[in-house]
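task queued by scheduler; priority normal; single chain, no ligands, no partner chains; default sampling; output format set to structure tokens
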Amino acid sequence: MIHQEAVTVMSNKQIAEATFEVELKGACVEAMTTPGQFVHVQTGGGWEHVLRRPLSIANVEDDVVSIVYKVIGQGTEWLTNQKPGQMINVLAPLGNGFPYEAIHNKRILLIGGGVGVPPLYYLGKKLQERGNEITTVLGFQHKAAVFYEEKFQSLGNCYVATNDGSYGTKGFVTDITKELYPNMDHYFTCGPTPMLQAVTKQLPIPGHVSLEERMGCGVGACFACVCKTTDAHDPKGYRKICQDGPVFEANKVVLT
């Protein structure tokens, strides 16, 4: 069930270059049980920022949700200035998340890039509870952008790649996953589209992708975040990322 609620800021801190983690407390957090869903956050007031910002759920503890966001415009800049005790209006939880419930005692590969990393942590915790063995590969542009490495290390082996080689393996996540996937049963990935394209092309095992996309309404009414399907016989030929996704079975949607 979708809730609209004014939630309380518990903390709001910078965790990497231009990257912040905000913790929000409210009754609606109780409904955030599926990793991969997102929160639609209202930034500013009045007509200052008309559209909400879709932000993925990084973790849930009791009635507190953690959200990681990157400062890329006026809306997220406004969010950095919200202090503990202040209220933020959210619409949540939205979208269809990762189908993790039926996966038990498997070898799982989590692959995240940039701000696509956060939802995989909540997913990893849920998968670990079901007896799955977790291996994570994280990709960032450079050392200053790295975050959540220690959190993923608590779930299992964690590898980091940076584009410039300033931390971990020099290169891309696929430079690491090519050595790992033969021993894996399933993968989940979230990140920029070029990374998703490379990952799905490389990995022949079953997997799911979570798409990052600009959104309007967040509930499937405005058709601002549509992606094509790969099935030529699909009667619709498209899916709404905010409503049908953001998580899809790998190779079922066109990554553009």
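post-processing summary
- The chain has three domains: 3-94, 98-201, 213-256.
- The CA atoms of residues 215 and 225 lie 6 Å apart.
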